[in-house]
Specification:
Jelly Rolls, about 15% helix, globular, alpha+beta, nine-stranded antiparallel β-sheet
Length: about 260
């Protein structure tokens, strides 16, 4: 009887383990509100929904004019902040405890003075006006400079956050056009955030505009770049539980040898 109870317990634990491993990621940034802390160009404006509407740019009929896609928000290097970056804060609407991925779509078309970003970094926070903890960054290489539509993904250890601070560092370019210094463009069509599990909407209901209320975004400190252990406790528990179940199942399956007297 005890053996059957142990076996049932092992099967249950194994089921829980498999369920946790196979949990599907969902795009939690879809239609999320966001704030541009650095302005978009009036020539290629943002309408408040382009960056999180789930629509990446498509190749237009005239394939030589990729920038003609209405999905893009254009940032000109003349409009960078004091650190030389473009910044966006995304409000996911709830605290998600299993954020795993960030994806950014952008354009590279150097003959049109549009350059792939040099780097795109992500910082997260549970409160809009709190300190933002560094989550990771995406860097581009020579392949990303080819004229085409790009999308790069960053996968991280699951973290908890409601607000995502996206910092876009434009390409370093000092070309000249008609004797004047060229101010290159950065074109972004989508910023996606994915997570495992549902969000906790009651964890933070602060949704005011930083600029409108005089708030500031505190950059992440160097010692905050280490993933917080509380974010992975549940997954680690399932892993240990699954390993224990497998070990017990193997032990029960092995018959003890009979000893002859």
């Amino acid at each position: 009887m005890k053996r059957w109870l142990c076996l049932i317990f092992c099967i249950f634990c194994l089921f829980c383990f498999c369920f946790s491993v196979s949990a599907e990621k969902q795009e939690v940034s879809l239609n999320a509100s966001y704030t541009l802390l650095t302005p978009a160009s009036k020539a290629y404006p943002d309408d408040g929904v382009k960056l999180t509407d789930g629509h990446y740019a498509a190749i237009p009929d005239n394939a030589t004019k990729y920038f003609a896609s209405p999905a893009y928000v254009g940032f000109n290097k003349n409009d960078v902040d004091e650190k030389g970056n473009f910044t966006v804060i995304i409000d996911l609407g709830a605290v998600y405890h299993g954020i795993t991925d960030f994806t950014v779509g952008y354009l590279s078309q150097e003959d049109a003075n549009i350059f792939a970003p040099k780097e795109i970094s992500f910082a997260i926070s549970k409160t809009r006006h709190g300190d933002y903890t560094e989550a990771g960054s995406i860097t581009t290489d020579d392949k990303d400079k080819e004229t085409q539509l790009h999308a790069k993904n960053l996968e991280i250890i699951p973290r908890s956050a409601r607000y995502v601070l996206v910092t876009i560092t434009p390409a370093e370019y000092n070309g000249k056009a008609d004797g004047d210094t060229v101010a290159p463009w950065t074109f972004i069509d989508e910023i996606s955030v994915r997570a495992i599990g549902d969000g906790d909407a009651s964890a933070d209901n602060q949704a005011t505009d930083d600029q409108a209320n005089g708030g500031t975004v505190t950059p992440p400190a160097d010692n905050e770049s280490i993933p917080q252990p509380g974010d992975t406790t549940l997954i680690l528990a399932f892993v240990l539980l699954g390993a224990s179940a497998i070990t017990m199942a193997i032990a029960l399956a092995v018959k003890k040898p009979k000893i002859k007297l």
